[in-house]
Specification:
Oligomer: single chain
Shape: elongated
Number of helices: 16
Largest sheet: 8 strands, antiparallel
Length: 665
C-alpha cells in the first residue's frame, strides 16, 4: 500500500481559510451548512447508476452487505476499506467508488427513512477517517467525487436529515476538497479514465464555487475536456478504445457535462459539440433493434437509448428521437446502413420499422474491420461480426466477462482471444501475440494489418469486403459480407497461404440456442439450425462441423452457456461460403446449388467470375437467388447479368423464372 496522505482537516477556522473563499472562510460550521442548504445560484443534478443504486442492494447495505459485479460480501460493522474481500480487484474499486451513496440518497428522498441517511453519514465518516487519498487509481477518486456530490444533492440540497450535523458536514467538505485537489494534480494522462476525472473536476467547480481553487478548476477542466474529446474520439466520432460499451460511457459523461454547462450558463467551444454529435451518431446506429448494444471489445451489452433521448433534448435531431423511442416518435435516420471508416465499424440494417417490418423485427449486423484500439480494452477480433433479427441476438460477441486473471481458468484471456469471436481462427492462434508479462497477460506483438476494400449500400444489396493479415501466421483472411434484400446474409471467407493450416470458422450463438442446435445434411448442403436462425454451407469432403460448448457474458461477472458452431478445414487455401438466414416463426428450406463447390471455392480464391445459385423455400413460396462474384468490368450473356461494375451481383427470380429484382455492388 502506498504511504498515507493526510486528508483529515481539524475543522478550525484557520484550516477553513485555506479551503473557502471570503466570506465563507469566516463562517461557522452551522452557518456554512445553512448556506449550502439554501443557496439558489448553483444548478446541478444527480446521475445515478441504475444497477448500483437498485433498492434491494441499498437495503442490503443497511446490514453491511455489499454486492458488486454479482459478488456479495458482508462486513462485521463498517467496511474494512483497505481490505479486498474478493479475488477480483474490481470489487474493491466499486466499494470505493460510492455509487451506493447516491442510492442511499434516493432511498431517503423517496421514503424519508432516517436509516438511509444515517448509513450515508456512517460510511462517509468511516472512509474519511480510514482511507489515504492515493489508495486506488485516480479514476476511482473521480467517480467517488461525482457520487459524493450526487449524494450531497439528496442529503443537503433536497432535504437535510438530523444526522447531517454541521460538524459532519464540515468534515465532508474538507475531505471532498482534499480529494478534488489531489485529483487535480493526478489526472490520468488519456482516454476514458481522464474523461470521468475531468468531469468530476468540472462538476466540483460548479457545485462548490466557494472553494478557493474553484475558478482554476473550472477553467482548466473545461479546456482539458475539449482537448480530451478531440484526442479520444476518432474523426468518425467513435471512441478510440474501440469498445462499444466504453464509447457510450464516455458519451454519457460528455452529455452530462453539456447539460451541466448550459444550466450554469457556461459555453462549451464548438469543436466539443461537434464531436459529441458525431459520437451520438455512432450510438444511434450501433444500437440493435432490441434496444441493446453489442458488447464489442471490453464491455457489456446494455441499453443506452436514454443517451439518444438526452442528445435529442440538447441538440435536436428527429432521428435521435426516433431511435430513442424505438420508432414511436421522430423521423427515421436517412441512411439504412452506415459505415464508420476510422473505427472500422460497419452496420448493415434492413430498415427502421417504417416500411414492412416492425422496428424490433428488423435485421441487423455489425462488422469490425478496425484497429485493436488504444489502451487495453481491445479484443483480438478483426473481421468479427454480430447479427440479430426479430428482436433477438442470434450470432453474438461473447463480451468480456471479467478483468480478473486469477483462478484455474484465465477467463479474461479466454474472452479476449480470437477463438471467442465470430471470425476465422488460424491454427488455434490469436491474431495478435497475447502473452504473460510481469503479473498479467498483455498484448505483446503488432496487431494485424487490415484493409476495407469495399462498402456499398444499395436498396436490395449491401456489400462489405475486408482483409486481415496477421503477423502471427502467414495467412491472408478475406471476408465478404452480402446483405440481400434485407432478409439474409452471405458470408464468404477466403483463406490463402503457401502451406497447410487449420482454419476454424466460428459462430457464437446466443444463450437461447443452448441445447437447441442441430446439424443435418440435405441436397449436398450442410444445414445448422438453431432458434430463429439457419446457417447453411455447401457440403464438401474437406469440411467438418461440430457444436462446441461456450459462454456469453452480457454483464460483468456473469456468464451463460451458449453453443459455438465450429466449421473446420485443413488446407493451404480454403473457402467458407455461409448463408446466414434469420427467421421469425417457420424455418425455410435452403439449398445451395453448386455442382462442385471445391471448384467454385478455388475460383473465388483466384478472383475469377463465379456464380452460386441458391433456392429458398419459405412459407410455401420459392425464390431463386443467383449470386455472381466478378472482378471484371462487364459480362456478356444473359440480359439481366450485363454491365456488371464492382464486385457482386444478385439476381432474384420466382418459381416460374420471372425476374423479381437485380442489383449489384
Amino acid at each position: 500500500m502506498l504511504p498515507a496522505i493526510n486528508q483529515h482537516a481539524t475543522g478550525n477556522q484557520t484550516d477553513r481559510r485555506t479551503i473557502f473563499m471570503a466570506p465563507f472562510c469566516d463562517l461557522t460550521a452551522d452557518t456554512l451548512l445553512e448556506h449550502f442548504r439554501t443557496r439558489a445560484t448553483v444548478h446541478y443534478f444527480p446521475v445515478p447508476d441504475a444497477v448500483e443504486t437498485a433498492r434491494p442492494r441499498i437495503d442490503d447495505i443497511l446490514n453491511n452487505r455489499f454486492e458488486f459485479n454479482g459478488e456479495s460480501h458482508s462486513f462485521p460493522t463498517s467496511p474494512l476499506w483497505l481490505t479486498n474481500l474478493s479475488s477480483d480487484r474490481e470489487w474493491l474499486i466499486l466499494l470505493h467508488k460510492f455509487y451506493y451513496a447516491v442510492g442511499l440518497g434516493i432511498a431517503y428522498h423517496e421514503t424519508d427513512d432516517a436509516q438511509y441517511a444515517e448509513k450515508w453519514v456512517d460510511l462517509t465518516s468511516s472512509w474519511v477517517k480510514t482511507v489515504p487519498l492515493d489508495f486506488l487509481p485516480s479514476d476511482v477518486a473521480g467517480r467517488r467525487i461525482q457520487n459524493w456530490i450526487f449524494a450531497h444533492y439528496y442529503f443537503v440540497n433536497t432535504s437535510t436529515p438530523h444526522c447531517v450535523t454541521p460538524e459532519f458536514y464540515l468534515a465532508f467538505l474538507e475531505s471532498l476538497h482534499s480529494q478534488i485537489a489531489y485529483l487535480r494534480d493526478h489526472v490520468t494522462p488519456a482516454r476514458n479514465h481522464r474523461t470521468l476525472e475531468l468531469c468530476a473536476l468540472f462538476l466540483a467547480a460548479i457545485v462548490f464555487p466557494e472553494f478557493t481553487e474553484s475558478n482554476e478548476w473550472l477553467a482548466w477542466s473545461r479546456d482539458e475536456l475539449v482537448r480530451n474529446i478531440q484526442s479520444d474520439l476518432l474523426p468518425d466520432g467513435v471512441h478510440c478504445e474501440q469498445s462499444t460499451d466504453y464509447h457510450h460511457l464516455v458519451l454519457k459523461n460528455y452529455l452530462w457535462i453539456t447539460r451541466l454547462a448550459r444550466l450554469n450558463q457556461i459555453e462549451m467551444p464548438e469543436p466539443f459539440d461537434t464531436l459529441v454529435k458525431r459520437a451520438l451518431t455512432f450510438a444511434l446506429y450501433s444500437h440493435r433493434p432490441d434496444g441493446l448494444i453489442p458488447a464489442l471489445s471490453d464491455g457489456d451489452s446494455r441499453c443506452f437509448l436514454d443517451l439518444l433521448q438526452k442528445g435529442y433534448e440538447l441538440y435536436g435531431g428527429e432521428d435521435l428521437l426516433y431511435v430513442a423511442s424505438r420508432g414511436n416518435k421522430g423521423q427515421p435516420p436517412a441512411a439504412r446502413s452506415k459505415g464508420f471508416a476510422d473505427s472500422g465499424y460497419y452496420i448493415l440494417r434492413s430498415g427502421w420499422g417504417d416500411q414492412d417490418d416492425n422496428y424490433q423485427d428488423e435485421r441487423y449486423l455489425i462488422f469490425d474491420c478496425g484497429p485493436l484500439g488504444a489502451g487495453n480494452h481491445g479484443h483480438l477480433d478483426l473481421l468479427n461480426l454480430e447479427a440479430s433479427a426479430f428482436g433477438k441476438p442470434l450470432i453474438v460477441d461473447p463480451g468480456r466477462y471479467t478483468y480478473d486473471e486469477s483462478g484455474p481458468i484465465n477467463w479474461r484471456v479466454h474472452f479476449r482471444g480470437t477463438a471467442y469471436h465470430n471470425t476465422v481462427l488460424v491454427d488455434r492462434r490469436n491474431q495478435t501475440s497475447y502473452a504473460w508479462r510481469k503479473n498479467r497477460f498483455k498484448i505483446s506483438g503488432p496487431e494485424p494489418d487490415r484493409e476495407l476494400v469495399s462498402f456499398v449500400t444499395e436498396p436490395k444489396l449491401d456489400y462489405l469486403h475486408g482483409i486481415a493479415r496477421s503477423h502471427e501466421y502467414p495467412v491472408t483472411h478475406e471476408r465478404k459480407v452480402l446483405f440481400i434484400a434485407g432478409e439474409y446474409w452471405i458470408i464468404v471467407d477466403l483463406l490463402r497461404a503457401q502451406e497447410s493450416h487449420r482454419y476454424d470458422l466460428l459462430f457464437h450463438l446466443s444463450p437461447m440456442a443452448e441445447g437447441q442446435v442441430s446439424i443435418a445434411q440435405s441436397n449436398r448442403t450442410l444445414v445448422i439450425q438453431s432458434p430463429q436462425l439457419l446457417l447453411v454451407q455447401p457440403l464438401i469432403p474437406s469440411l467438418t462441423s461440430s457444436i462446441e460448448t461456450g459462454f456469453v457474458s452480457t454483464s460483468y461477472g456473469k456468464k451463460e452457456l451458449a453453443p459455438i458452431i465450429q466449421l473446420t478445414q485443413q488446407a493451404s487455401c480454403a473457402c467458407f461460403f455461409t448463408v446466414v438466414y434469420p427467421y421469425k416463426k417457420q424455418a425455410p428450406s435452403i439449398s445451395i446449388h453448386s455442382q462442385n463447390f471445391e471448384e467454385d471455392g478455388r475460383m473465388l480464391l483466384d478472383g475469377k467470375e463465379t456464380t452460386i445459385p441458391i433456392t429458398i423455400t419459405h412459407e410455401g413460396h420459392d425464390s431463386h437467388d443467383t449470386i455472381l462474384f466478378t472482378n471484371q468490368a462487364t459480362r456478356e450473356g444473359e440480359p439481366a447479368l450485363k454491365s456488371i461494375e464492382g464486385h457482386v451481383q444478385i439476381l432474384r427470380t420466382d418459381h416460374s423464372g420471372r425476374l423479381l429484382f437485380c442489383c449489384q455492388a
